[in-house]
Amino acid sequence: MNQTLIQEILEVVEQAAIASAKLTGLGQKDEADAAAVEAMRLRMGKIEMKGKIVIGEGERDEAPMLYIGEEVGSGNGPGVDFAVDPCEGTNLCANNQRGSMAVLAASDTGGLFNAPDFYMNKLAAPPAAKGKVDIRNSATENLKILSDCLGLSIDELTVVVMDRARHKDLIKEIRECGAKVQPISDGDVQAAIACGFAGTGTHCLMGIGAAPEGVISAAAMRALGGHFQGQLVYDPAIAQTSEWADYTKEGNIKRLNEMGITDIDKIYEANELASGENVVFAGSGITDGLLFDGVKFERDCVRTSSLVISTLDSTARFTNTVHIKDGAKSISL
Questions:
Q1: How many CB atoms are closer than 10 A to CB 4?
Q2: Whose CA is closest to 98, among 294, 307, 289?
């Protein structure tokens, strides 16, 4: 992992974002995802590295590209593990809604938790609250702690929660405390990262989302010095999702055990989900969002807006890139 590699990782998410953005608003979520996957894999293949996908599009028999365990890159150079979500928020992209982006986390070999395709209860908060709020606490307790840490009254706090039936009681508790709830339909990675920056208006992420995206969020929050905790959810009665309609709690526990996860109730800290010495997060907007703009297509260029957060030099770089088309005659600032 080095600065040259980080620049190439930025280009990986930019190309994935551009590919997906061409289908924005067309209602074609699967096609948008496939376009991002292909573009991301193509750009990864040009990097001098021994890359490996540890979190990707599914098992090899489920995904033709960027499948878990796939080797990417030239095969020479540093060993790098990747957790990727080429089009996070496929529904957002398909419907031209805010918050869709191409994202990945990268680390030295063995530095990312190989999260199973389960759900995860998550808690993200600003650096000032790191190690003080705790996922074991009630929402009420954490809001009181967060209020003290940030020097804000509870009614000034905004908590992002996925708009799901399973969060009915959580949302009710947050509102009864006096805090504001910002429900989102998809894309909790951007919401988690927003907690790491003051001025975004987002102070906390609570609730259950996808576990693989939890690892990507953890990598970003570790690099930012923010708070992130995750706990796997294996009980269908808690997940309350149609995808698990035929699953049982016992069956899910067996699946976890077969994956080598025996402490099924373990609470993972950010530095356990992203444990590598060097950790990088990269994201590029597909549609406009809280942290960056979406892809903009112009006559002579394509514009992307991205964010790279790295532990290598403790930086968060917001990058606006102009991709100049062949034969360009006029490029505005």
A1: 11
A2: 289
CA–CA distance from 29 to each of 122, 289, 294 (Å)? Answer: 25, 18, 16
Neighbouring C-beta atoms of residue 325, cutoff 10 Å: 14
Q: Which two tokens stand for residue 333?
A: 């600032």
Tokens matching residue 268: 């993972």
What percent of the chain shows pLDDT beyond 70?
100
Contact criterion met (CB below 8 Å) for 175 and 159: no
- Residue 251 neighbours by CB under 8 Å, 6+ apart: none
Average pLDDT over residues 58-64: 76
The DSSP-derived string for 277-322 is SSEEEEEEESS--SSS---EE-SSEEEEEEEEEETTTTEEEEEEEE
3-state secondary structure of 199: coil
Residues in the chain: 333
Give the three-state DSSP class for 249.
Answer: helix
Residue 59 has pLDDT above 80, yes or no: no
Strand pairing category for 180-184 and 158-162:
parallel
Q: How far apart are CA 36 and CA 42, in angstroms?
A: 10
pTM above 0.85, yes or no: yes
What would the two tokens of residue 127 be? 């650096």
Q: At what angle are helices 168-177 and 139-150 packed, to 10 degrees? A: 40
- Please count the CA atoms within 13 angstroms of the CA of 268 that sit on its side-chain side: 28
DSSP string, 42-87: HHHTTSSSEEEEEESSS-TTT-SSS-TT-EES-S-S-EEEEEEEEE
Whole-angstrom Cα distance, residue 94 to residue 183?
A: 19
Q: Do 209 and 188 touch, CB atoms closer than 8 A?
A: yes
Which of 92, 39, 38 has its CA nearest to residue 65? 38
Cβ(280)–Cβ(1) below 8 Å:
yes
The whole-number pLDDT of residue 61 equals 67
